[in-house]
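Two proteins follow. First one:
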Amino acid sequence: MSKRMIGLLIVAIVVFGGVLGGKLFLNQMINDFLDNMPVPAVAVSATEARQDRWIDSVTAVGSVVAVQGAELSTQVSGIVESIRFDSGSEVKTGDIILTLDSATDRAELKTLQSAERLAELERDRIKQLWQRKSVSQSEYDQRQSQLEQARARVAAQQARIEQKTLRAPYAGRLGIRQVNIGAYVSAGDPLIGLQALDPIFVDFTLPEQRYSEVHVGMTVTARMDALGEGSFEGKVTAIEPVIDAGTRNFQVQATFTNTEQRLRPGMFARISLDVGEQRDVVLVPRTAISFKPYGNSVYVVTESGEKDEDGEPILKVKQRFVTTGQARGSLISIEEGLEIGERVATSGLLKLNSGAVVSINNSVQPDAELAPTPDNG
C-alpha cells in the first residue's frame, strides 16, 4: 500500500473519530445536565387533617307521599248537574264537590214517601183494632211489616240520591277537575284528585344491615331538590316488617309537618338519618383523596430535610393509602392511615407522584365545609 493511501486512511480515521467522539461527549454532557437539573416544584394547595365529632348517619333517597290521596269518583252513573269547587281549592270533610242529575230519583222518592205514610196510617188503624181485640195479632204484624218495608224502600231511594252527590271524604286540596257540567260520567270514572297535605309522608328504603339501627321516633332530615336550599325534619312513624328478598332492602316511612304545604306528593327527597353515638373523626377535603380501583390514597406533605437556595425547607409529598369513611358536604372522614395535624395536598394531585417536590400556594382553596352552598349565579 502506498504512503499516500496510508495517509488518507489516517486522516479519515482522525476525522470520523473526532466526529464520533464529539457526539458521544455531547450526549454525555446533556445527560449529566438533565440528571443534575433541579426538578421544578409542583404548586399545590394543602391543609391539615382536623378532628371533629360526628354522629354516624345513613343517607337514602325517597318520595313524598300524601297521608290521604285519591282520585274521587261517583258510585253511580249520570249527568253532571253542578260543580261546586274550583280546581286547586281547599275542601273540608263532607264538603259537596259536585252533583249528578237526580230529578227522576227525587220524584220516585216522593212516591215511596207517600206509600210510607199510607202504610203508617194503615198500621195505626189496625193497631187500634188489635188493642180492642177486633183483629188478630197476625193482621197487626202484617201491617207493621208493610210499614217497615215502605220505610226501607224510602231509605234505599234516599241512599241512591245521595250517591249522586260527590263529597270530600277527608280534608285536603283538590286537583284539576276532569269533567264539565252536562257531561255524562260512568260509575268509577276519575273526576278530581284530592290530597291531604298536612301532615305528609316521605317513604324511603334502607339496606337490611341497617334494620337493627332504625326505630320508630328517630329524627329524619329531608332535602328536596325541587325546593333548593333548606331542610325539613320529621319522625320515623312506621318500619316495614318484611325485607324485600329481591333487593334486601326494607321500607321506612317518616311523617313531616307540612303547614305551609311546600312538600307535595311525588317530590324527590334526599334523606339523612342519624344512627349510633357521637365519635371523633379525622377530616380532610374530598379533593385530597385520590380515588383508585386498587385503593384510596392521599399525598402527605413533609419536609425533606434539605433547603433551597433561599434557605427554605424543601417540601416533598409521600403517597399514603388510607381507609375512607363517611362523606358529608365537601369533607370526608379518614378511618385509618392519617393522623390529626398531618398536612395533605388538596389540589394538583394529577401532577404528583410519591417523592415529588412541591410548593404550597393556598391563595385558592377547595371547599371544605359540611354544608357547602355553591354560588349558582
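Second one, unrelated to the first:
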Amino acid sequence: MKATKQLAVPFNKGYLTGAEPAYLQQAMANGPMTGDGPFTKRANQLLNQIIGARHTLLTTSCTHALDMTALLLDLGPGDEVILPSFTFCSTANAYALRGARPVFVDCRADTLNIDERLIEAAVTDRTRAIVVVHYAGVAAEMDAITAVARRHDLVVIEDNAHGLGGTYRGRNLGSIGELATQSFHETKNVHCGEGGALILNDDRFYDRAEIIREKGTNRGQFFRGMVDKYRWMDLGSSYLPSDLLAAFLTAQLEHFPEIQRRRLHVWNSYHNRLATWAVEHGVIQPTVPSDRTHPAHLYYLLLPDLQSRSAMLGHLLEQGVLGTFHYQPLHLAPAGQKYGRTDGCPVTEDVADRLLRLPLYAGMDDDDIDLVIRAVESYRPVRRTPHPAAACPK
C-alpha cells in the first residue's frame, strides 16, 4: 500500500471574515449575551434580506429548526411526512420524534433531489407535509411539488441547509415553502460553528413559533410589553442561541457576497477544468438546470460504481487531498426501517454508492484548486456502461 502524503487540502475549513473577534468582544462587553440580543436581531434582518423571507428566528441548529416545524404542525402518531431518502437523518428525526412516520421517496438521478413525479403516489389521507431538500443548493422542482401540496392541502417545508443564496425560477430558496430551515454548521457557506434558523413565510405560524422557541413561554411578548408576565403557553424547548453565536454569524452574513464569490470560483474551476476528464472516464458531474442558480455549497462527482469511488477516495488521500462520500439511504438505515416506510428508492441506493465530494471552502486558493484537480486527473477509473439511472429524463 502506498504511503499517504501529509494532508495538503482538507475537506473543509471554516472561513473567517476577520470581523468575528470584534463582534464577539462587542457582544461580551455590551450584552446581553443571551438570545434575542442586538446581534440576533441583526442576523435575522440580514437573513430576511438574503432569502426574501417574511420572518426569521435563529435557532441552535438546523435540526432544532426542523424539530420546531414538527411542533408547529402538531404532528403525532398516525401522521405521515413525505421526504427524500437521500438526506441527513435530522430531516427524518424531527418527525419521527413526534411519532409521525417519515415516508421516503426516491431522488432524481440528475439533480439528486426528491423526484417530484413520485410524490403524489406517496400521499395518503394521513399525509401532513412534504419536506424538500435542495441537494447541493440546486433547487428541487418546486412548482410541481407545491402543486401536489395544494391539491392535497399539505404544508411544504424546505430543508434549505445547502441552499442559502440559491434560486428557483427567480425565487430565493427558503422563501417558497410555508416553512424553511437553514443550517449554520461549520461546513456550510456561512456558519457560527453550530447554528440554524427557522424561516416562516406564512404569518399564521410566527407567534406560535416564537413561543415554541422560548421553552413554550410567551417571554418575547413580555419583553415587548405585550403582557404583564410570561407563562408556559405551549410545548417547546430551548431553541434560542446566545447572542455570541449571533455575533459570529452576523460577521459571516455581512460578508456573504464575498464568501459566495470565493466558493463559486472553486466550484466553477472544478466544473470547467474536469469536464473533459469526466467524459473520458464515465464520471458524471453535477447538473444545474438553466432555470435555477446554486450557491456552490458542495461539488460532487458520480463515479461508475462503488469500487471506483472507494479507489478514488484512497487515491486522493495519497495525493494529500481529503475527499468524502455523502448521505447513506435513510430507508435502508436501521432507524429508517423501524420508523419509516417506502415503496423503494433504487436511484438513491445507486448514487449513494457512487458519489464523491471534493474539498470546497471559501479559503481555498488557486494552488489548492490546482492540487485537487491534478489529484483527480491522475486517477484513471475503469470505464463501465453507465447505470441506467444516469439518464433520467426531466
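SUMMARY FIELD: The radius of gyration is 21 Å. The longest strand covers residues 127-133.
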